[in-house]
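Input for the complex:
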Amino acid sequence: MTRVQTSDKRPVLALSGGVGGSKLALGLARVLNHGALTIVANTGDDFEHLGLHISPDIDTLIYVLAGLQNQQTGWGRRDETWSFMAALGELGGETWFKLGDRDLAIHVERTRRLRAGETLSTITSEIARSLGITSRILPMTDDRVRTRVITQSGTLDFQRYFVEAQCLPEVTGFLFDGAAHAQPHPEVLATIRNPALRAIIICPSNPFISIDPILALPDLRSALASSVAPVIAVSPIIGGHAVKGPTAKMMKELGRTVDVLTVADHYRDVIDGFVIDTTDAQLASKLDLPIEVRPILMLSLADRETLAHAVLKFADRLANPTT
Amino acid sequence: MTRVQTSDKRPVLALSGGVGGSKLALGLARVLNHGALTIVANTGDDFEHLGLHISPDIDTLIYVLAGLQNQQTGWGRRDETWSFMAALGELGGETWFKLGDRDLAIHVERTRRLRAGETLSTITSEIARSLGITSRILPMTDDRVRTRVITQSGTLDFQRYFVEAQCLPEVTGFLFDGAAHAQPHPEVLATIRNPALRAIIICPSNPFISIDPILALPDLRSALASSVAPVIAVSPIIGGHAVKGPTAKMMKELGRTVDVLTVADHYRDVIDGFVIDTTDAQLASKLDLPIEVRPILMLSLADRETLAHAVLKFADRLANPTT
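Predicted:
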């Protein structure tokens, strides 16, 4: 496996949800210099469960970047055991949201520290560091933002829709409670405004529920708009299908065609360039912005690194067309 | 194994700490009619750890009565796994107090319900019922009482002394913070005042740290003094040694002789009868109260039942000397 580490030390910012986005985030972390990458994690999925503060996207990013993720499930930790969940069921506790024994440690420790007055960003940074992660993983905000899913069956808290109802209710829209008044993390804004910033990369996460909550923070969105660095999105749709999760189902329910054109249109006001899969090459001419066509299905670690490298090069070309 | 179930339906009250006391509590639960036994658990050992409310003595009683206890350690659950603790250590969390993955369920569920406004007694009852326990296990109070250990090295929170410092500091006394104003659970008082009450049994727990916190509740102590039922203590000391834990070490450090005379003297104002081991039979004549001499080292389940039966018969004889 070739690891093509760049000598470029300029900072790079990535916006990411959980499983899908974390694949590219890992690729970026591996090809960039230590400390160059800052990942902004969606916290709209966060919720309180069993009295614990759970941050699913932050945790997935931490586990993936630390090499601790569960390869089978895509979420949670590898070498997981399930004694807690079994015992909780015996006591009559709620078991619809699966928490593995190892995974539980991050929720208990985070909750303890939040109650002691520490910020989610400080706790996230220190946990990431304790697991040997050299990239910065920052929650989009330390304020409370909660994604709610408007469905034909009513408006549901995100995890009730996503896990308990298994994304079955038909979606008509989304709410990001608290987003309008949430302050983006100062380091996120500082990174976006850094004149040396090389690129802002929107990872191939679900646009509606993983990236939109981040873009719903007014100060973050306006900072993006005025950043000198190119903003590049990588499509979560390949050949009319979502690689994982309910992205395609949501698009259909919202009356949109499931293709890269819909994704590009969704990000229209935000991005300077768009990366689509070779499968979708024939749609490139219908897109009125700079397009990079690459194999974007990341199966291997090498795929993640290769795509990360290609996205960075694409950003460099957009920033400086003469090179 | 003979199970000698009594046909007597009168209620019985037991005061108990954790490991030692739970052996006799289990014996009583097995020989008494379903629902006849109420066990009052010490909550002076309770503490907040990792943001969780931990009630060690209640949990030991629940696990022992549900047949879920860890036979090797004496505390915690059988078939335990330790993934949570290992993962917590990796994150830099506190690991001096060992919480198994299965055990964790009771702490998380209890803490969630306490935060939702339920009482410790309600939560305890419902968890016990969900595990099939037919005896009532009640915390001595729903109010906050915290045992603190006065040592040559300063005054320590109980679990810091007991677990972290491994009982090594030399003890000079104990404080039961909150006990003076704590209200005993109303059902405990009602049981003590029940004219049909057959016996009040002080289980062979550590007098200083398991039973004294219960007796430190003024209303509970005065109710005991006026109860019509005989109060019987079973010695935690056999042949000058404690069966388990720091009882003997504490007695020495407090300048007392480690023998049944010291235990009887300690309970002098409270008990009507005292049960000592056959090993200590020669000391019976030095005790100025009714004495029952029995093998009290409970190794097998049959030992627990036999002693429970003997203690109840002793109480019956004290209550009605002519039978």
